[in-house]
Amino acid sequence: MRYRVPVDDNFHYMDESERYELGEFDTLETAVAACKRIVDEFLISNYRPGMTAGELYGQYAFFGEDPFVVYSGQGSVPFSARDYAAERGEQICHER
């Protein structure tokens, strides 16, 4: 089974013409890890000292990329980039 990772652009919400394909992966774990890397890169590069987790998440929700996993054309896998961004934002803001 192959896992595809399409990526939407939150800045162009619901505009599928802004979507791109990150790639195909052999396992669910590698596909989800690729999604998490996209979110992590955005959060880390947009974090500013003193920023709250809510502010960081707001930046992601408006301007970040929203990757998701689809397998063999049969639907989406239960991974939410938005939920992950909220969790990671908390961690990043707490660590710094």
Please tell me about this protein's structure.
- It is built from 3 helices and 4 strands.
- With 96 residues, it is of the alpha+beta class.
- The protein has one domain (3-95).
- Strands 1, 2, 3 and 4 form a 4-stranded antiparallel sheet that branches.
- The longest helix is centred in the middle third of the chain and has 19 residues, at 28-46.
Net shape? globular
When the domains are counted, the total is 1
Roughly how many Å apart are the termini? 39 Å
Low-confidence stretches: none
Oligomer category: single chain
**Backbone structural class:** alpha+beta
SSE ordering: EEHHEEH
Report mean pLDDT, rounded to a whole number. 91
What is the count of β-strands? Answer: 4
Q: Give the strand content.
A: 15-25%
Radius of gyration over C-alpha positions, nearest whole angstrom:
14 Å
Helix content: 40-55%
The major beta sheet can be summarized as: 4 strands, antiparallel
Tally of alpha and pi helices: 3
Secondary structure layout plus pairing:
Elements: E1 3-9, E2 20-25, H1 28-46, H2 53-63, E3 65-67, E4 70-71, H3 81-95
Antiparallel strand pairs: 1-2, 1-3, 1-4
Keywords:
96 residues; alpha+beta; four-stranded antiparallel sheet; 3 helices; 19% strand; globular
Question: What is the gist of this entry?
Answer:
This protein has one domain. Helix content is 47%, strand content 19%. The chain has 3 helices and 4 strands.
